Amino acid sequence: MVQYQKYKLDAVFTVTDLVNISYYKLARGYEFPGESHDFWEFIYIDRGELVVTAGANKYLLKAGEMAFHCPYEFHSFQCAGQTAVNVLVVSFYCASPYMKAFESRILFLHQQEKQCLSAIVRESESAYVHFDNIPPRVDMRKKDTAPFGSDQLIKTSLEQFFIHVYRRNDNICFEERTVSTNQLHQHAQTAMRAREYLSEHYGEKITLELLAGKLGISVSQLKRIYREQTGSSVITHLTNIRISEAKRMIRESDLNFSQIAEAVGYDNIYYFSALFKKRTGMTLTEYSKSVRA
Q1: pLDDT by residue (tens digit) across 14-72?
Q2: pTM for the full predicted model
Q3: What is the DSSP string of the chain?
């Protein structure tokens, strides 16, 4: 007779209770004043950037990244720059000693982890009434139509997700992303100076190298800070200013189209005409007639 040996399956992460799982769409400039609690929480940035405070640390969290808050750790956050931010927040109880590996770390998710997270999101949307919430609202109400076994799928997907993240162990220490209040103020001032320069010199030949030099920073810093603070690229903003001024000149001046193109910084009337139509949906002539009609 065959003798069978049974093997006890070892569980390295066990999520016992769920407190919150919500997807928040944060308006630009939003600030969460902060809280602390006796359970774990992680925040994943789906779009935009957040400046997060966690205990004594303040760091920048970017799209595609997540960070954990351990029990009793005070944490708060604010949107970085002027862009809207979409975040997934999951709060839960887990007594595993392996959770300590996630403390004071920023984790950039690879495809496998994103697939796990996507499964959690899909199941939560199906199972709970208020999956999309307005911060800081938490309303874990189960739908009457919740699919069979949805809680268990969410639980096991979370545990699988933690295992994948733990195995990879290529996360970033908070110290590598530390930001100070002074740095945030400096970035805001840099973006403001850049916008002022563009508004005053839009009719001149402006390059990223020229503008970065005027501000005393590198081109890469200029591009990063400007997008972080305004949600737009330098070139996009400059183009918007030029098109807006061209529209004003068409309405208010006697200049011809070539003169207007030159006045707003374009020495090629054909390029300017094509750009104007792409941005406004009308040719220069069509716009001229529409505003004078």
Answers
A1: 999 999 999 999 988 898 999 999 999 999 999 888 989 998 888 888 888 999 999 99
A2: 0.65
A3: -PPP---PPP-S--EEEEEEEEEEEEPTT-EEEEE--SSEEEEEEEESEEEEEETTEEEEEETTEEEEE-TT--EEEEE-TTS-EEEEEEEEEE--GGGGGGTTEEEE--HHHHHHHHHHHHHHHHHBTTSEE-TT-----B-TTPPTTHHHHHHHHHHHHHHHHHHH---EEGGGGB--HHHHHHHHHHHHHHHHHHHHHTTS---HHHHHHHHTS-HHHHHHHHHHHHSS-HHHHHHHHHHHHHHHHHHH----HHHHHHHTT-S-HHHHHHHHHHHHSS-HHHHHHHHH-
